[in-house]
Amino acid sequence: MLKIFFIGSGKLNQNFANAFSxxxxxxxxVYSATVNNSLYFSKKFNISQFKDIKxxxxxxxxxxxxxxxxxxxxxxxxxxxxxxxxxxxxxxSKNLVSNHKNNGxxxxxxxxxxxxxxxxxxxxxCIEASDDFSLRILETLADKISKRPLxxxxxxxxxxxxxxxxxxxxxxxLFVLINEFLNGNHLEFDILMPIIQETSQKLxxxxxxxxxxxxxxxxxxxxxAQHQSILSKYPELLDIYKILSKSISEHQKQ
Amino acid sequence: MLKIFFIGSGKLNQNFANAFSxxxxxxxxVYSATVNNSLYFSKKFNISQFKDIKxxxxxxxxxxxxxxxxxxxxxxxxxxxxxxxxxxxxxxSKNLVSNHKNNGxxxxxxxxxxxxxxxxxxxxxCIEASDDFSLRILETLADKISKRPLxxxxxxxxxxxxxxxxxxxxxxxLFVLINEFLNGNHLEFDILMPIIQETSQKLxxxxxxxxxxxxxxxxxxxxxAQHQSILSKYPELLDIYKILSKSISEHQKQ
Lengths: 254, 254
Description:
Two copies of one chain form a homodimer.
Chain A: E1 3-7, H1 11-20, E2 26-31, H2 35-45, E3 48-50, E4 62-65, H3 72-78, E5 84-87, E6 103-108, E7 125-129, H4 132-145, E8 149-151, H5 154-184, H6 193-201, H7 208-211, H8 221-230, H9 235-253
Parallel strand pairs in A: 1-2, 1-4, 2-3, 4-5, 5-6, 7-8
Antiparallel strand pairs in A: 6-7
């Protein structure tokens, strides 16, 4: 039975603790620099709380360094253990934890929240490790919660990370903008939910380029001019409208 | 039993014919300026083909003017019938068909394709009409295929149309860009499907502003600078990255 330990009690480790609590992996404990946070975490997932980093058991298989990016190398230096130490960032090098003989990266390609824990079963988990032994352990761990472990080197992981920014952060921000725009015009965002759901559903059977519709894709200058007239009071939306419409027109011509 | 007639045999009327074929609405026939297209349509949906616009039966309840935007008023003038004549554009005025005593607009807020016909059951259908009688008929028609008829005036319909461009056209275009970027880097778009699906699923329980994650939302200048460095060879992606990241940073501060 694999033993894991959580360092940091934020949303990343909470999502993992929730997922591993449904497997045979033994969650040995949690440490956080903020004692109240690790107390909450330990109660929520029914695992031991460790208040001092020096008291962390040294014999776990994997240590999840789920702290802020800027803290990873600092905490890694403080940590004196024998197992595999991993961080879960999509963008940082595993060198940040390479003071440990066995180290790696374990990055789930998903946008996580505290409100609803992720179901990782279809989520690709990108793994990378200092050595073959550690890689096998990380693969086993990934298999416990997901059907899609991915062996990805740092360069490709970074490409995926930038892409995920477009796929999630940017699309979600378009929803933020529309939500404000609709509410300001006394309309409910909920009206657009079916078309939003369909947009992503369609990708399961249609290449996105073939799924493209709308005035920019058919170079309908009249409708685009009228849209821009409506958006003239919303300069931020107007700028985004122009740059994305131009990009669509150019791509659909190709 | 309501009788309807299709003028135009493109994807819009195909989607409607498919939907109404599962109801008690009688589909009287189809006319298209291109005879081969109306032949295909008439065979596919097992309804009568009319080759001359002058032969169209005058006593149907509703005529679906599913032709290109630029043709709507022209075809409307040629059409000599007694029923309600409607167009299905999200952005055009019903004045384009107001040469008919009873007229209206019937716009489903959905991105339609020929490959997979839409299930309209949850799709809002915006209806507008010249008079109360016509509005009741259009409401009855909408009820046959959807749970969400919406009584929306032209100004609000235009606001919804612009919003749908952001919600569908622009998000889909981000997927087009990522698809190319990933393929160029020997990575599969499919890896991002779970995060794309989750992004829209999350909207069902979380306000998009609260769902926002990523470097721009936490003003992580270091990661953003490195992303831009990766994108330096992709000027189009870089421009979009900058404008959307700036917009995210400003909104998350508010």
